[in-house]
């Protein structure tokens, strides 16, 4: 079975994403965001777009979201997804990393099994201010209207917070849910 690819967008937590997946016995590989598109398309069963400091350094990440593979975008990865599908990203009012209480509005897909409210660890230096068409809001908070989104027809998800850090409530569940989605799609 093919691994998940974790796309390194130069974020300080990208290696923690890989570690979290391996701790869950999920086969994963960290790849540069300059990996040729055909290698990504042929080499994995799903793509996790990691975080990073600046969307201008996201390499080919925007092309990876169009490969007919399940995609999970984390922080900057969410921003890449939003921009690729016509949404807008701007500087948030709250910068820096910190605790945020999010309200889950849709418990299907990657947020299955979570309570209605939970504490996460997030940076809001940048955030999605206009959700792209054909996407639905999965979670919100008092400081960010689009904490998590999902495409209505394709398995493409984005979250503002970092599930790979210990400060996020049961962050492993996001990865387990995403992996389950990948397996279901690849077995059918």
Could you outline the blueprint of secondary structure elements for this entry?
Blueprint: E1 4-8, H1 14-23, E2 28-32, H2 37-43, E3 46-49, H3 61-64, E4 71-74, H4 76-84, E5 88-91, E6 97-104, E7 117-123, E8 126-130, E9 135-141, E10 148-151, E11 156-159, H5 172-187
Parallel strand pairs: 1-2, 1-3, 3-4, 4-11
Antiparallel strand pairs: 5-8, 6-7, 6-9, 9-10, 10-11
The gist of it:
The protein is an alpha/beta fold. The protein contains five helices and eleven strands, in the order βαβαβαβαβββββββα.
Could you tell me the CATH topology label: Rossmann fold
Based on Cα principal axes, name the global outline: globular
Q: C-alpha Rg, in Å?
A: 15 Å
CATH C-level name: Alpha Beta
| Arithmetic mean pLDDT | 95
Runs with pLDDT <50, length 5+?
A: none
Name the features:
two-stranded antiparallel sheet; 188 residues; Rossmann fold; nine-stranded mixed beta sheet; 24% helix
Task: Explain what the structure shows.
The protein is α/β, with parallel strands linked by helices and 188 residues long. The chain has a single domain, classed as Class I glutamine amidotransferase (GATase) domain (Rossmann fold). It is 24% helix and 30% strand. It contains five helices and eleven strands, in the order βαβαβαβαβββββββα. The chain has helices at 14-23, 37-43, 61-64, 76-84, 172-187, and strands at 4-8, 28-32, 46-49, 71-74, 88-91, 97-104, 117-123, 126-130, 135-141, 148-151, 156-159. Strands 2-1-3-4-11-10-9-6-7 form a nine-stranded mixed sheet, with helices on both faces. Helix 3 (61-64) links the parallel strand 3 (46-49) and strand 4 (71-74). The longest helix is centred in the last third of the chain and has 16 residues, at 172-187. It starts with a strand and ends with a helix. The model has no long low-confidence stretch (mean pLDDT 95).
